Amino acid sequence: MIVRVPIPVFAGVGPPYVNAGSMSNKGIELALNYRSQIKDFTYDIGFNVSKITNQVVNLGGGEPIAGGDINGLGQTTRTEVGREIAVYYGLKTDGIFRTQADLDAYTREGVAIQPNAKPGDVKFVDLNNDGVIDNDDRTYLGSATPNLSYGFNASLGYKSFDFSFFFQGVTGVELVNGLGHWQNNANGMFNSVASRMDRWTPDNINTDQPRMTQLNPNNNDQFSDRFVSSGDYMRLRNLTLGYTLPKGVLQKLHISNVRVYVAADNLLTFTKYKGMDPEIGEFNNNPLNFGVDLGAYPQPRVGRIGLSVNF
């Protein structure tokens, strides 16, 4: 990998880009297929699963690399030796301060850990126990590298009819919902998702939605695990139903084969992800943005009707 490597200050130039970084991908892939026929019924079934372990091995002696910049959240990813590329790096949260008593209890040696917070604000975890919420409390929040990728396909046939489908999915994936950052903003300056109607108010304290405050002194919208969510999905990639005309009919027309079919791509997606599409890849083709969702155009659902003729 091409990375910036540290050089002595007296060199008089900034750190140069050098082909000094390295990354390792190791894993296993398993594919099973079975086909058979029972009289006029034929079937072909396949299943595959793969697991890849990604690890940054060397950055040429340079510092960890920040990436995944989101306006208002700052850098959301971190690439460092010993981790996957572009892991999410930010603050952990512990719900919100629902009452003044919650605020009064969150202290260290009698001093408030979040002095600018009010009831309804986000409670950030003081990981290093120094009594201050700052960049030193940031930690690993997951990555877009899946634990498992899998697929399942089947082709079925009965006399002149054929039917096939293909499912594909991933598990163990986290995504940064950058678009959700705008839609869940605390200051009420932009349109918000409907769930913000359940925001904290003095009459609605039993909620996990922080309050609306234009000044936002607690910086509730800074990057934290609030904006990291599961990106697991299973998608019906393709569904096809076809019919081939009998040979007896075609011989009279001097045609060897005619098949009509209907098909659909990306017909169904099963996911808990709240963004537009869990399959987002890299924003701007930058691997440091891997898994950061800034509103990538979703996979289209496509329907087709076809006719195939062979003379």
Q: Describe the largest sheet.
A: 7 strands, antiparallel
Specify the structural class: mainly beta
Summarize the helix and strand pattern as letters: EEEEEEEEHEEEEEEEHEEHEEE
State Rg.
27 Å
Q: Look at the structure and give the mean pLDDT.
A: 91
Strand order of the largest sheet: 3-4-13-14-17-18-20
Low-confidence stretches: none
Helix content estimate: under 10%
Residue fraction in strands: 35-45%
Helical stretch tally:
3
What coarse outline follows from CA principal-axis ratios?
Answer: elongated
The N- to C-terminal Cα distance equals: 53 Å
E-strand count = 20
Word description of this protein:
- It is a single chain.
- This protein is mainly beta and 311 residues long.
- The protein contains three helices and 20 strands.
- The strands form six sheets. A seven-stranded antiparallel β-sheet has the order 3-4-13-14-17-18-20, with no helix packed on it. Strands 5-6-7-12 form a four-stranded antiparallel β-sheet, with no helix packed on it.
- The longest helix is centred in the N-terminal third of the chain and has 6 residues, at 100-105.
- It is elongated.
- The model has no long low-confidence stretch (mean pLDDT 91).
